[in-house]
Amino acid sequence: MMRWPSIYIDGGVQLFRTNQTKWLGFNKYIYGIPMDKSWNAISNYSETRTARFMANETGANPPNMLRGGLYAALYEDNRLFTFGGSTFLANTTDPDWTPPRQDEASLWSFDILSRAWEQYDISSVVPRRPNWGAVAEDVNHEFGFFLNGQFDRGSSLGRYESVEYKGGTATNSTYDQITYLSGMIVLDLRRASPRNVSTDSLGAPRVAGGLVYTPYFGRSPNGTLIAFGGMRSRGEGDDTFTNGILIDFTTVSLCDNFGDENVTWFNQSTTGETPSPRIDFCTFPGESTVPDNSSFNFYIYGGYDPKASIVYDDVYILSLPSFTWTKAYSGGARDGNLFAVETTGSVLNFSNSTCDEGPGVSLFDMTDLAWSTFLNASAAPYQIPDKVVQKIGGS
Length: 395
Hints:
- This is Galactose oxidase/kelch beta-propeller.
- It comes from Macrophomina phaseolina (strain MS6) (Charcoal rot fungus).
- There is one protein chain.
- The chain is 3% helix and 38% strand.
- It is mainly beta.
- It has a five-stranded mixed β-sheet, covered by helices on one side.
- β18 and β19 form a beta hairpin.
- Residues 333-338 and 351-355 have low confidence and may be disordered.
């Protein structure tokens, strides 16, 4: 997540190393990556990190989460906001690991200067901590969005401690089960206040999809949300992390009245070089390069097909208002879904599904459509790539 002059990373899974021993565990820090100075990931890359286990006014430490949301809240002094998430359960041997908590705080803020945490009881609107939803933010109006998502064993102490018995013997057959969550949480970050709006017109709830906010596109001065991809339930009552139905990219869904009482989504067909269905891809919106803000391009990177066990290493661009997909990059050197954040003219990527050796940082130039390890802080502003211009026209 970008909050100038730094990019911030919170939560997730990290590769730890001690001599010849390696293991996966949860990330215990908030990382800050400076973006106002040039650097090379190989030679002079630096980062700051702040422990999440710190004293705060509420007397509670913020939980270490994955699959949650992180919001910049640009006009909120020095605070970032985290929302939702699930406890990492694949390795519980870490001495700092704790089971899911039975608390009301799905929303936390973190002051990047004082390092103080604050939690907010929003259980009257969000009674269960969601995770794996699609995240977007309207930074100008200070709204954060969390679309659909799920509830799993890492979300709740009660579900974590529940055990299913068959024939008098404990079984772990329910460990991978999830509950899809309908609705979209709209967070007023200025007031730390949520709304849960209906997504019935969007269709079945989804997880691990994409959500983009375009500030000027659409019929409303409030901008438009665009949802795409991910996975939905088969509707047979046995939902797990991997057995859902993948949502293809031949259609995207738009919403421009998310501030109203009755929220409506409508579908839009796409054309061009459509990405294969997938989950857990990275989404990063580009900027408009025309004076009337009538044209936008947003990018997706990577992802995973749990049905075919395919890990993707490719970049696609969706151009509005033509809703045309362009394949911008396809490789094979990177293994996994990298976390990506938009910067001025570049995308910064960290780690992957198997966890990189070394810094695990690379950059994708959104104009030149090429990877590198060098950040040029004085690079020219984003321009529509030639490959996109050739497909949709314009300049």
